[in-house]
Amino acid sequence: MSTSSNVSPPARDHTITPLAGSARRVDGTPADLLNPCDYPCEALCTECGQPVRCERWLRGEWHHIQRFSNP
After folding, report:
1. How many CB atoms neighbour CB 17 within 10 A?
2. How far apart are CA 25 and CA 37, in angstroms?
3. If residue 24 lies in a helix (H) or strand (E), which one and from where to where?
4. Tens digit of each residue's pLDDT (9 = 90 or more) over 54-68
5. Sign of CA dihedral 69, 36, 11, 21
6. CA 54 to chain centre
7. 39: Cα separation from own chain's centroid
């Protein structure tokens, strides 16, 4: 598993759920979370409003990031 300097520290105390309609591919275009070709993708966390990222469809896990890849 590779790490990126864009990953936030893991000190989050809530489950990450991407905000509906906020998912974007890393190039900034809208992403369909049910389409494996749209991964990796980023979105907003419904709980805290911060950016989150998921590398893989189905078995990928969402994690908080410092900022979006393509604002």
Report:
1. 13
2. 9
3. strand 24-25
4. 999 999 999 999 999
5. positive
6. 4
7. 9
